[in-house]
Structure formats: structure tokens, C-alpha cells
Design brief:
By secondary structure, the chain is of the alpha/beta class. It contains 10 helices and 12 strands. Bound molecules: glutamic acid.
């Protein structure tokens, strides 16, 4: 049996809202219920979107809520050499190719089906460029990204702890996706896979918006000869407008709730109730549900769950 190791992986692009808190709470419960190890990783690769001070505020908010960790924080921005090493390995194995298409080119060529999650599916324009031509263009400094060549006949099968069986025969594989961006930085998929692999993460619990990412990350795990974690994608929390919570919504960050008088116990309790982990009128907090917690009892709710106020 693999040791239980989970992770928090916040992006320090603003204050944590109750949707982030809900995913973090479930990730923590699932690991702690089995006395596993929790790793804290700051996903600060998207430098233009990173806000100064945000990482510290997120750590404080998580602690306030009663969620702790054993290792880290580790910052992705300190790990560029690890992502580069993985990229070179993929390159040596012929699993990536340079792609000279702009985002506009991809959108224009894509009368092709969309990827789940509304991403434009890459139509494969640069997949089979003659190798000589690709070499000359990269040597000339033509702007390019690097894409992972998806060779699988279907999406990789896996058992999501919340959504059940995913992928497998009859499903379509993801399109070739970016692992290195125009500026040479690693893509989200590459960085997350390298990190989860090197940190020995056995279980990834995160929001439903990332369910379509799991297939790509599993393919990268296979190409890098690592063991993928078990995934559990949990319901997103919706604002009063029915749109999933984001930094745009007001009054729903952990800080705002705290400032308006909410206690950590109230917030954890409310989230547990929304997620079907605590009966109405039941008064236990995090510690109370810990000994009976099993992520598989969280109901899949792809349309999301409304926040109460
Ligand atoms: N950093 C991502 C986020 O905050 C999570 C990535 C992941 O869990 O794989 O949405």
C-alpha cells in the first residue's frame, strides 16, 4: 500500500473564497482521516497573476480554519529546474513537438470538437511537420510552444473517488496539450505532474473544474514513468448568480466572512453541511467528522452547490 500523502495546491492570486476553502477542507479530511501526510505547495508559476502577500494570507486563512500540513510550503517558482529536467526527458523520448500556432490559429482551425472544460482542442497542425523544418524554425527563434503528443486511443481510464469511472474505451483522448509555453516556462499540467510525482502524492482532491485535467496529467505520469495519484474531484461552490465563485464575487472570501463575525467552526460546519457530511442540527466540527470521513461519500454535483447567502 502506498503511504497516504495529499496536498494543498493554492494559487496565490488573491484571497481564498469559500469554494477554495471547501476543496481544501475535503482534501485535509480525506488525508487526516487515514493519518496521512499533508503537503503545502504554492502554485505561483503564473507570475503576472501572483499578488504580493497573497500566499501568506492563504496560509493564515487555512490555519484559521483549522487545516494544517506537515511539509512545505514549497513554491513552484523555486522548482523551474525540476520542470525543465522533466521536459528534457519527454523531449529525448520524442513525446513532445514544437508548435508554431498562435492561440488565434488554434481557435480558427478548430471547427473541431471542443475539449471538455471548454478548451479549444488543438487540431494537430504542427504535429507532423517534417523534423528538419521544425528544427530550422526553432533555431530561427520562431515563437513556439511545445506540445505533448497524445498517442493513446482513448482517455486513460481511472476511478475518480467522487465521480466514479472516467475515460477508457470509447472515450476520446485529450488533444495534444502544451507542456512548455512561448516564454519557456512549464505549463500548469507539466508542473503539477512533476510536483505530484516528486512529492509522492498518492491522492489529489480538488475542484470539479480540474476534472478534465486529470486525463492529461495521467498521460504525463505515464510518459515520465511515475505512478499517478488517485483523484477525487469535488463540487464547486456557486455564488448567488449561479456562477462558480471567483475572485470577482464579494463577501465570500474567508477573510470577509471572518470580519463579519463568522467563526472558523461555523464556516467549517456550514461547508460540511452543504457537502452532505453533517446533518442539519448536528453540531460537530471538523474533528467530529474526521473519524467517519470517507471522500467517496461526497456526492458528485457537476452543476455545483449554492453558497448560502
Ligand atoms: N493551483 C490550482 C488552483 O488553485 C490547483 C491545481 C491542482 O490542484 O491541481 O486552482
Amino acid at each position: 500500500m502506498r503511504p497516504v500523502r495529499g496536498r494543498f495546491a493554492p494559487s496565490p492570486t488573491g484571497d481564498m473564497h469559500v469554494g477554495n476553502a471547501s476543496s481544501a477542507l475535503l482534501a485535509w479530511l480525506s488525508v487526516r482521516a487515514r493519518s496521512g501526510v499533508m503537503v503545502m505547495r504554492m502554485e505561483d508559476l503564473d507570475l503576472p497573476r501572483v499578488r504580493p502577500g497573497s500566499a501568506q494570507r492563504i496560509l493564515e486563512d487555512l490555519r484559521w480554519l483549522g487545516l494544517d500540513w506537515d511539509e512545505g510550503p514549497v513554491s513552484q517558482s523555486d522548482r523551474f529546474s525540476r520542470y525543465d529536467a522533466a521536459f528534457q526527458k519527454l523531449k529525448r523520448a520524442g513525446r513532445v513537438y514544437p508548435c508554431f500556432c498562435s492561440r488565434k490559429d488554434v481557435a480558427a482551425a478548430a471547427s473541431a470538437p471542443q475539449e471538455p472544460g471548454d478548451e479549444t482542442r488543438y487540431p494537430g497542425t504542427c504535429r507532423d511537420l517534417p523534423p528538419g523544418q521544425a528544427k530550422i524554425r526553432t533555431a530561427n527563434g520562431d515563437r513556439h510552444v511545445w506540445r505533448f503528443r497524445v498517442e493513446a486511443p482513448c482517455a486513460p481510464p481511472f476511478q475518480d473517488l467522487v465521480h466514479g469511472q472516467q475515460g477508457g474505451p470509447g472515450t476520446s483522448p485529450p488533444g495534444d496539450f502544451i507542456v512548455r509555453r512561448f516564454d519557456g516556462t512549464p505549463s500548469y499540467h507539466l508542473a503539477v505532474t512533476v510536483d505530484d510525482m516528486e512529492m509522492g502524492i498518492s491522492e489529489v482532491v480538488r475542484g470539479d473544474d480540474l476534472l478534465p485535467s486529470a486525463a492529461r496529467q495521467i498521460l504525463l505520469f505515464q510518459a515520465l514513468e511515475g505512478e499517478p495519484p488517485v483523484y477525487g474531484h469535488v463540487p464547486l461552490i456557486l455564488g448567488p448568480d449561479g456562477v462558480r465563485l471567483s475572485k470577482r464575487h464579494r463577501g465570500v472570501t474567508v477573510r470577509e466572512l471572518r470580519a463579519s463575525g463568522w467563526t472558523a467552526g461555523q464556516l467549517a460546519g456550514e461547508l460540511l453541511e452543504l457537502l452532505g457530511q453533517r446533518g442539519p442540527g448536528e453540531h460537530c466540527g471538523l474533528e467530529g467528522v474526521l473519524n467517519r470521513f470517507d471522500l467517496r461519500t461526497v456526492k458528485a454535483c457537476p452543476e455545483g452547490i449554492f453558497w448560502i447567502n
